[in-house]
Specification:
10 strands; 11 helices; about 260 residues; alpha/beta
Length: about 260
Amino acid sequence: MVLESFQVGAGEVPTVLLHGFLGSGRNLRSLATAWSEADPRRRFLLVDLTGHGTSPPLPPGADLDTLARDVLETARAKGFTGPLELVGHSLGGRVSLAASLAAPSEVASVTLLDITPSPVPVDLSESGMVLNVLLQAPDSAPSRREMRAALVGRELSEPLADWLVMNLTSTPEGGVRWRFDRQALSELHGRVNGTDLWPAVERPGARVRCIRGGRARYVSDADVRRMEAAGCPVATLPEAGHFVHVDAPQALLRWLMEGN
């Protein structure tokens, strides 16, 4: 399946940026633009993962392998040749690891932005909390403002509500509705978080690196020790939460450039 996508830069190093759960490719546009300016050798592809943004909906039973195959197919369809450098935040990182297992010859390296290869416990999943609020929200509303108010009224923070309403689309009646299938995403969420992806880090020849937010909980100290033992370097941005590309963009860019 070919996904919705856009490109930044015109270099020769094929680099694919993958967003997190409930997001879209444009969440990483600022990172791609800054990185392209700092390293013109790169050409970036930013996709809306399957079931997200304006990409096609999730097929029944979709899992990480489904999303990984769609990313690789989209990259080839858009003219990205040679082994790809995959950089993924949260869900995007887990999709990147799955892609490296499904097609190791097509993936040059994986960069994880605040996500673990371990199964993610329900009580650690920030996206799970947001999803629960989303599932309780109405299917439609007269306006974005009213849908935003409904989300905030369910104790979602204003910044998260602002981020979620980016996924609304207009209805013929003049109101708004959700662009994505919330129930299908809920089912995907359980499959994604329950997957053990350590084989992608610990397999011979794996090229994986990780950066975590010091205020986030996704990558534990035990994860760091196990990743480093497998040859996967891990850095920490003390001032950042889960959204490292938002909380510490300059520090993240410096770290990304160190790996060139």
